[in-house]
Write a structure and sequence with these properties.
The complex is a heterodimer of chains A (296) and B (342). By secondary structure, chain A is mainly α. In chain A, 72% of the residues lie in helices and 4% in strands. Chain A is built from twelve helices and four strands; from the N terminus they run H-H-H-H-E-E-E-H-H-H-H-E-H-H-H-H. Chain A has a two-stranded antiparallel sheet with strand order 1-4. In chain A, strands 2-3 form a two-stranded antiparallel sheet. Chain B is mostly helical. Chain B has one domain (3-244). Helix content of chain B is 75%, strand content 0%. The longest helix of chain B is centred in the last third of the chain and has 28 residues, at 265-292. Chain B starts with a helix and ends with a helix. Classes of the chains: A mainly alpha (296), B mainly alpha (342). Chains A and B meet through helix 4, helix 9 and helix 12 of A and helix 7, helix 13 and helix 15 of B.
């Protein structure tokens, strides 16, 4: 029973973080049909934001807000620098510019800050544990669960009920038609990147809260998770991204419990093999989104 | 064979010949090393072109197969006396086998091709972004395995003791063969059908092209070449760790292909030459900056930033790369015939 409770909490907290990562990637993909390789670097930017404010004496929540804002600004900047000039061109061109932009940000961090890990300020709450039902739970796991569920609900409300959300969903389904009906394309795209940056910022707080430090390559793992979760869930579906995130967390956590220490170091290999099997069964992912989209 | 293709072949092979001749004339060790490294990159980039160029799907896994080739050749060619030190936990069956580096290089390619054949088929059903993303995942899988399979790869530590066997003439000869193979594959039935599927997947499928099987063949060929390239590289540097086969190297190889133009073999070759020479220049600059002590810390990453900016500039101005659709031979012939009076 205790193991089951522990397992559930592990899956929910990891899955919440994964779902947010995937959602940030898919919000851009759904509308623009482009994969943002620089997504991981948004997480890195927020992390370095926290690091640079270390010792500034500001309350932590203010620092966190500034860090998230930094990720939002970088997200929008990504759109202007890497996507707008090639938006109308091939999918490959967009992939490459985003990969190049990600390399620029990463190497800028290498060049101007340091290749070595830097500690970020975190509130004491992140290192405390809570006793519950006979098991010890790190408080940061509970924070992750609450934050991710809250954000998912807020996001669902935004997409379903507000004019902006409806316009964004319309643009994801039929971009050209949406434009003809008066949805401003550039505004929608910038908003998508801003939301993506917001998710990246929040993920950064939760993720770096687990690790405690930031390196130039910190964004790689979240990026990979987001990639795989969205591919499993279905690249064009927001629900799919959330489902994929939780499913991936379930697979990872289950492997953590099942595999012996020897095999555990190969966990990523096992996970990705499972992903390949899922794709063999359903190449389009678990949930199919709206039909093909255009970007102009 | 069309005259345009012959001309392409002559020009590209001429460039490779030049690569062998110039260091001979200059007679400098450093130039020869640069030329050999360039020839290895040539093998890798043209190998990537056979898959990515014809199918239109970016493959990030290519460098993973390079790693497989390098490690496979290493395990088979490190002298038996040294092997106990380099790979103490190697399995008994493998520990006793030793082959010459040339055989090792071929076997390295074969192992990479076999791995590709075994894992890639389901991935070939995917198109567009999901295909790219899963190839990225495949790279991570290969990297994870290389880094943790201590018995065969010495784990994340450096593997040493490979015999130095990669000479400039050998590498250049292999690069020349690879260029011929890539051009021949492009013009073959499989290549033609694959290119049709690249330009319009639905139309090609409607005409009866079995796209996953076509892509699968190209992928295996590309992995074979990558494995050979990796083994060549291994026998060139003689010691390496799994880190060498990850995102940094992927970025360089991809940059070469993309800037040159991934749809043509000419693009792959010209891109490799341009970027390799640009890189040498920048690296020299970085070393000079570090030696002068103008900055407090080591200057790292400038090379990558410049390459990234170059990639973005090419994508903005010429999204298909320098040679976007036509090989250099037909391009020259067309210019020539257009000038002639009607």
């Amino acid at each position: 029973m205790q193991t089951l409770l522990q397992f559930t909490i592990d899956v929910l907290s990891l899955g919440g973080a994964y779902a947010l990562m995937a959602l940030g990637l898919v919000i851009v993909y759904g509308i623009l049909k482009l994969v943002n390789f620089a997504y991981g670097e948004l997480i890195m930017v927020a992390g370095y934001g926290l690091f640079l404010m270390n010792g500034s004496g500001l309350p932590w929540l203010v620092m966190a807000a500034v860090a998230v804002l930094l990720a939002v600004v970088t997200g929008v900047l990504t759109e202007y620098a890497a996507f707008r000039p090639v938006r109308a061109k091939s999918v490959t061109a967009v992939l490459i510019t985003s990969f190049a932009f990600s390399t620029i940000l990463q190497n800028a961090a290498l060049l101007f800050i340091s290749p070595r890990p830097r500690n970020v300020p975190l509130p004491d709450l992140f290192s405390q544990t809570v006793a519950f039902g006979g098991i010890l739970i790190p408080a940061r796991n509970l924070i992750t669960i609450v934050a991710s569920i809250g954000l998912l609900l807020l996001f669902a409300f935004l997409m379903k009920r507000t004019v902006l959300g409806i316009a964004m969903r319309a643009a994801a389904t039929q971009f050209r038609m949406a434009r003809m009906l008066g949805v401003p394309a550039n505004l929608i795209i910038s908003t998508a990147f801003a939301i993506s940056g917001f998710f990246a910022g929040v993920v950064s707080l939760l993720w770096i809260g687990r690790i405690g430090s930031v390196t130039p390559g910190v964004g790689l793992e979240p990026l990979l998770v987001a990639f795989i979760a969205t591919v499993i869930g279905g690249m064009r579906s927001l629900q799919g991204a959330v489902l994929g995130g939780f499913l991936l967390a379930f697979i990872n956590t289950a492997l953590n419990y099942l595999l012996t220490q020897d095999l555990l170091q190969f966990r990523d290999a096992f996970t990705f093999t499972l992903v390949i099997l899922i794709l063999l069964w359903r190449p389009e992912g678990l949930i199919r989104g709206p039909a093909t989209g255009q970007r102009t | 064979m069309k005259p345009g293709n012959i001309l392409t072949l002559v020009i590209l092979l001429g460039l490779v010949a030049l690569l062998v001749l110039v260091p001979q004339l200059v007679g400098s060790r450093v130039v020869e090393r640069i030329a050999t490294a360039l020839a290895v990159s040539l093998v890798l980039v043209v190998g990537l072109q056979t898959f990515t160029g014809n199918s239109g799907i970016l493959s990030f896994a290519h460098i993973g197969f390079m790693g497989i080739g390098a490690y496979a050749s290493a395990v088979l060619t490190i002298p038996v006396q040294m092997r106990g030190m380099a790979l103490p936990d190697l399995y008994g069956v493998l520990a006793g086998i030793q082959v010459t580096p040339t055989v090792g290089i071929v076997l390295g390619g074969a192992v990479a091709a076999l791995v590709a054949a075994a894992v890639a088929y389901p991935l070939m059903r995917l198109s567009d972004a999901p295909a790219v993303i899963t190839s990225f995942a495949l790279l991570v899988v290969i990297y994870t395995v290389l880094q943790h399979w201590s018995a065969v790869t010495n784990g994340p530590r450096t593997l040493f003791g490979l015999p130095k066997a990669t000479t400039l003439p050998l590498t250049a000869a292999i690069a020349a063969v690879v260029i011929v193979v890539a051009l021949a594959f492009k013009e073959s039935r499989t290549g033609l059908l694959l290119r049709a599927s690249r330009d319009d997947e639905r139309a090609a499928a409607a005409l009866g092209a079995g796209i996953p099987a076509l892509r699968w063949r190209a992928f295996i060929l590309s992995a074979l070449i990558a494995g050979i390239g990796g083994a060549l590289w291994g026998h060139f540097v003689t010691s390496f760790s799994p880190k060498a086969f990850y995102l940094k190297e992927t970025f360089v190889i991809l940059g070469m292909l993309v800037i040159g133009g991934m749809n043509t073999v000419t693009g792959a070759v010209i891109g490799t030459f341009l970027i390799a020479l640009l890189f040498e220049g920048l690296r020299a600059l970085e070393t000079a900056l570090n030696a002068s002590g103008a900055f407090a810390d080591q200057v790292v990453g400038v090379t990558e930033i410049v390459l990234a900016l170059a990639m973005m500039a090419v994508m903005f101005l010429r999204p298909g790369g320098l040679f976007a659709a036509t090989e250099i031979g037909p391009l020259i012939l067309r210019r020539f015939t257009r000038r002639a009076p009607p």
